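Page 47, continued from p. 46.
Same chain as before, 667 aa.
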Amino acid sequence: MEKTDHETDTQTIELQNEIEILKRRLLLASGDPLSIENLTKEENIYNYIGLLKAFSFRYSVIILAYDTPTGPGFTVELSDKLRDLGLKVNLRDKFRMGYIAILDSGSCTFEHIETNIYRTVKCTGNIGKCELELESSGWHTNCAKSHIVINSKPLTGLSIGLNFVVFDKVTGAVVDFVTFDTYSEGLFCDRPYEDEMKMFYKEQGISVVLVKSPKFPESEHTQSEEFIASHNLMGNAIFNYPEMKNVGLNRYYNEQALREVLSTPVSYHDINGVRRFNDYHSKYINISGGHRITLYQPDKYQNTIYLVGGCTIFGYGSHDEMTISSQLQKCLTESGISLPYIVQNYGFCLCQGDRQKKEIPAIIKSLPLKKGDIIILFSSKTDPDYYCIDLSNAAVENRNVETFADFNHFTPDGNKLIAEKIYEGLISQGVLNGSSAPVEKNKSYGFTFSQNKELAEYQKILSEYYNEKFPDPVIGSIVMNCNPFTLGHRYLIEMALEQCDFLIIFVVQEDKSIFPFEDRLRLVDECTADIVNKEVIPSGKFIISSLTFSEYFNKSEMQDKTIDTSLDVTVFAREIAPCLHITKRFAGEEPNDSVTRQYNETMKRVLPEYEIEFVEIPRAKMDGKVISATDVRALLEKRDFDTIGKIVPDVVYNYLWEKFANKDQTE
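Result:
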C-alpha cells in the first residue's frame, strides 16, 4: 500500500529525531569536550557558565531565580559572565526579584525580570517537544510558588539563588539541575537531593517537619523593625549603630554580652563531611559533643527531636536558654506528654559562604536515628510527603512580640514564639506519635463509597472546567450562601477581585435555606453580571453541605457551642482547590455569628498548610451597622422594604417584593 504524505512526513521527522539523538551519543562517546559528566560535577559557577555557553547550542537551558537572583556573592564579573551567554538583563544588584531566562540553540529566546518584588514572573510554552511551565517569585511573594515543570513533571529541589536546568528538547530528559546560592558569598553549589533523602527517611521510619520561618513584616513596623528596615541591618552590623539602645538585641544584652551571642563558634568538618563545633563554655553559649547544648532536657526519654539547619536554629543572637531548641524542649517537658522527647540542637552558622555540599543531609545521616524520631528543618518550601508548619505570618500575627533581631535573625523572644508555634503545630498535626509520614486525618472523610465516587466526579468536572476556562492567573475563591444576596456580598466580591486575577464564587448548593438554591444562584449571577474576571458556580455536595458542615444550617441553635469545622475546610483545601488551582480564599469578618467566626478561624489555621492564603475582609456597613443577610430576613418579617432597598441590589429587591410584598405576614 502506498504511504500518504502525512505518514511520510511523520516518519521523516521521527527518523531525523533518532539521528539527532544518535549524533549526540556518538559525540559524547568519542571524547566530546562537552562531557555531561564534566557539567554535572562542576561546582564553580564561573566554570559552569563557561560550559553552559557551549551546551546551549546543543541543549536548552532554563535559568530561574528562587527567592533572589543576587546577593553578597554576586559580582560584576559574574554578571558579565552571564551576559556572555546572550542574556540582556544585567543582574547585578537585582535583589529579591523574580527572573527567568531561556537559552535555546545558542540564543536567548526568553528573558524577563520582575522589578516589582511583590509580583512573579511566569513563562509557559513549548521548546521542541517539551512543554514548559515556569514561575519565579521574589522574596516578598510566596517564594514556594516558584517552580519548573517540564512536560507536566515538576522538578523538586529549587533552592535560593539561580537555578540552572539543562535539558534535551527532543527527549525532554534533564541533563543537569543545579543551584548556585548567589545570596551567599561562597556561591554555594547544590544539586537536589530530596529524592535520596525521602527514601532515607522512609526506610528509617523518621518523621520530617518543614517549618516556614517568620517573614519580616512589610508594613506597620515596630520601632525596632523600622530601624532594622531603614538600615537594612544584618548580624554584626548592629555595632555600627550605637543609637540602637532600645531596639533589637540591645533590649536583651549589654555590649559585652551582645558580642558573645553574635560571635561565630569555631567549627570544622569531620572525615564524613559532617560539621562539628569545638567544645566551648561561657555564660551565654555552651558547646558540647560537637553541637550547642539544649536546656530543660529530661533525664529519661523515648525519642529525639533533631533541629537541623543554619544560624537561626543554632540560636545566633541568643543565650542557651532562649534558643528555639531549648524553648521547644521547655514546651515538651512542661506538657508532660506520655512519650517524652529530648530535643537536640544541630544548627550551624553560615558565615562568609562557608557551606559544604550536602551539609544538612550529611549531618542527618550522622545522627543516631531510630523509628519515631523527628527531624525539624527550616525551609521556604512545602512538601506533601512531609509535615509542614507555616510560621511565615507569625511576626505579623503576634505584634506584642519583638520577633526580629535584624532582617533575618530572631530575638530571644522571637525564638520563644517560634518554639511555641512549632510545638502547637506538632500537637495539632499529630506528629508526636512516632509515625514517619503526615497523618492522613480522615482521608476518606467518613464518606460512603458512592459519596467518594461523587467527589471524584466533581473534581474531574472542576479540573476540566479549569483547563478550559483559565489561562493561569492568581485564582481566588469565595463560598457564599447568599440567603439572600446583599450589597455586602457584592462588596466582598469587589474587594476580593482587587487581590486576585480571577475569582470563583461558589454558591452553597444545599437546599436548606429560606431561599431555594436555583433562586440564589440566579440572583448572584444577575447581581454580578457587570463584574469581569469572575465565575459563579454551584458548590456541590462537598462545600458547606450537610455532609461536611451540617452545623451551618442550624446556626441559631449553635451560637454558644464550640464546633469542629475542619472537615469542610480540609476537603476544600485538599480535594477542591487543587482542581481549580485556587491559591486564595476570601471571607468577610464575622463580628456577630459565632459559628461563622469559628469557621473563619479554622480556615485561617488549615488553609495555609495547603498553600492557600486565607484573606479576611472587613464587612461593608450601612449607617454604621454591618450589612447582613440575616437582617434582610428579619426586615422581611416586618415587610420593611424601604430599609431592605438600601442594603440589597435592585434585582434582589424586585425578587423579594414580588415574592413577599403581598404575602400575609401571619403565614
